Amino acid sequence: MIKISLLLVTILCLVSCSPQKSSPLEGTQKLEKIRLKLNWFPEAEHGGYFHGVVSGMYKEAGLDVEIVSGGPGNPVETEVAVERFEFGIANADKILAVRENKLPIIGLFAPYQKSPRCLLAHKESGINSWDDIVKTKQLIVNDTKPYYAYLLKQYPSLKGIQTIKYSQATFMANKESIMQGYVNSEPIIMKQKGIEVKVLPVHDIGFNPYASVLITSEAMLKNNPELVAKMVEVTRHAWLAYLADPQAANHEILKRNPELGNSLSESMHILKDYMQADNFGEMTDQRWLILAEQLQKLGIIKDASLVKSAYTTEFIKNNLK
Amino acid sequence: MKKYVPSVILFITFLLIWDLAIRSFNISPFILPSPKAVFEIFADQHQELLDATLQSALIAVAGFVLSILIGTIISLLMSQSKIIELSIYPYAIFLQAVPIVAIAPVFILWFGAGTKSMILISMIISLFPIVTNVSTGLRSIEKDVMEMMWLYKASRWQILWKVRFPSAVPNFVIGAKTSAGLAVVGAIVGEYFTGLSGESRGLAFLIQSNQQNANYPFLFATSISAALLGFIIFSVVSTLGEWIIKKGHFERKVS
Q: Which CATH number does the domain A32-114+209-316 belong to among 3.40.190.10, 3.90.940.20, 3.30.70.1110, 3.30.420.40?
């Protein structure tokens, strides 16, 4: 009997003690597990987050960040709202559109100061400026997005133009079509495929929501503001480090999304211009309000005042450049 | 009237369980909206839902009718010659296995974005039940009957008209009932790939925009509208089919 109890004690001791002894993190703080849901497949647009992971910046700050790819039709905002993910990425117009339906998510900081959304036209189509776009025969766009509603308001004659689901093949086949894109993605891909395009950035016609905003849920913000603060702070530093030296993160992005090929480094150079700010990632009340009023006019939200609860600048007070 | 009682009771029970589940398990309205929220959408947005449903209905019905015409022609061809049948049938089965979401972008490439492609996508998905059922019906003739027709030196046309056609009618109705539901699926898939610019918007547009804007009660209401549309088309086809079989005294066979 005694022997058996001794054996049990030994086993218990082994089981309970051994993991601690072998843990290299003994004495350091426990890592907080964080899951970040991207708005798309990994690309330069997410460089800062990948830099945070591969450089170890997150780990040093006590954050164990897992980056989960998104894709078409992934409801990032909802998954963050119901706390399947601690953080996610969404554009400012989308944040307001889902807040209209009471989704409790909050914007934290905005790496993209200018919206990278653009339209692409074939050079040979003779479409060289915004005023020419009414000449198109086909719009390869997501017609449920707010920017499309804005486009129709600016150019009412586009209403009669057929819209079709995003497809690069369709765009390449039809010289008279116009396709949506991101300035740091589709124009580069088309160039590599030998297709000359004219790029029309949507911010040029006055629709300029912050893009790729880091979001979290209201619950997360209430229950764990320190963690949110830490995530924002480290991520901003990681972004700046990425913009200075993107190599390591790009390597990881390519591993996760090999289709990008050599468009990635070129894409990253365009980012710098779009992320230029006095305080990296800053968001101003004025910009948010302009967007909210635009969306109200388009009927996407009923009352522009909902913008007040859609974001917080609480965590981007200290100046970073 | 009595035959509807069980399904109505089930419906009410279902709504009660739905509502109870949300309350007792504290389910987020962003995972499952309450029945009340969905009903409110039906009340407030009925015009938009009705317009979208009618838009999709037009495409589905057009696709369905086309599939009946084309399906019957293909089956007729196959019934006329063993060689034609042997050469076409394997490909019909093969094509049936290509997922509709893979066919849709190709059709848009060929026929252009717009209503035409949507109808064709709806047609292709509802075509095969017609082909398989009708050709089974045209072929499965009792041996005695065939021998008698040969004995009387009936022409190919007479055999087709007097024997094969009547034999195929019940199978045709079975195929049409399956296709009716599929036509709605095809219409929505077609719309999904070619959004209808600006003005006229079908169910796919509502599904997409409400998913994007996280308006889940509206999303549920749209899905229910799509299901209702399929149900209505199915019911009409089914009733009409039963009536034809009864009226013409067509013999039902197992396919």
A: 3.40.190.10
